[in-house]
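User: I'll paste a sequence; please echo it back and then give the predicted structure.

Assistant: Echoing your sequence first, then the prediction.
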Amino acid sequence: MRAIWNGAIGFGLVNIPIKLYSATEESNIDLDMLDKDDLENINFKRVNAKTGKEVKWADIVKGYKLEDRYIVLTDEDFKEVSPEKSKILKINQFVDINEIDSAYFESSYFLEPQKNGEEAYKLLLQSLIKTKMAGIGTFILREKEILCLVRPYEDKILMVNRMRYPEEIREFEDLKLPSAKKPKEEELTMAESLIKQLATKFDPDKYKNTYNDDLMKIIEAKAKGKTKKVETKEEVSAKATDLMAQLKASLEAGKAKAG
């Protein structure tokens, strides 16, 4: 694992030197884009929109179009923006994590203490575990100010959950939502029974990306010159009149599986 950010957590007047590591990775099968005629790889190049000529990375700069011209920004310009946040993840408040809607959460990162920061790191970790709280803070990562939550993970390590700002979550008023009419009491009772029947303690190990396995079987079959027959699924009716029948069938299926 390679650190993607070096800095410190600002915890009151205490600064804890840390390194930030990505806690997740993609589990998708890596597919290449090919020319269908000769199966050669497709290359993507950075070209000048006017001349069509390829541009080297060293010759590329970043700019913002202000009115009718571009203002070019340098590394020094980015460092001038809140320089204290570029090296400090400052915790501004502590909250109950259950108060935060999961819609605000994005990527996850692990925090590793650097030399001379081990004791303060343990102190913050154990304090968060004992109080069952999490810290809300901000820092600069790749020229963006990140809103984040610092919390214990498996009671062994500090994790950072990158968060969305409120303005990044879209409004939903324009969507066609159900009317305020309440569902029938019998339907509601049966739906509650189905929820209770399926209610268990969350176990992430029960879930696996089976799509990748199925796709790999098709790839291996095609490599051997075989084709896999596609099984057509019957469409599920969404008519309101079928709702009770679907709920009853769901409950019976759950009982049969359990028994």
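The beta strands are 5-11, 14-22, 62-66, 69-73, 88-95, 105-113, 134-141, 144-153, 157-163. The longest strand covers residues 144-153.
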